[in-house]
Task: structure prediction
Amino acid sequence: MADIGIFSVITAFNIDHNETPNAPGPPGSNDIVTILNPVVNTPFSYLGDDYFFNLLGFSQDGGGTISTVFSTLEGGSNTATLYGRITEERVSVPEPSTLLLMGAGIAGLIGSRRRSKGRNQ
Result:
């Protein structure tokens, strides 16, 4: 991987901050921050070469886990870092219909597993 230097990529994304009721104890009192429109394949050029920027999400553990959602604890200091990736080629993004089919398949597997557990007990 080549070091392409320091530069700026200007893009926009929306976040939602769900201010939950301050119920006693987590997770009931945790507020939820969500990236609403992930940034995928934002093109830019640097020194004549074309690249793509992709916003990966938040991490609260130095990049060990990255998610488009994080939970903030009430009454404390909360920190999350936004991570992104620069690629030379577009990343493939599943089409919404593909995601719907995959989700339906997973839900079916979970449902059949629960039914079989109920019969065995």
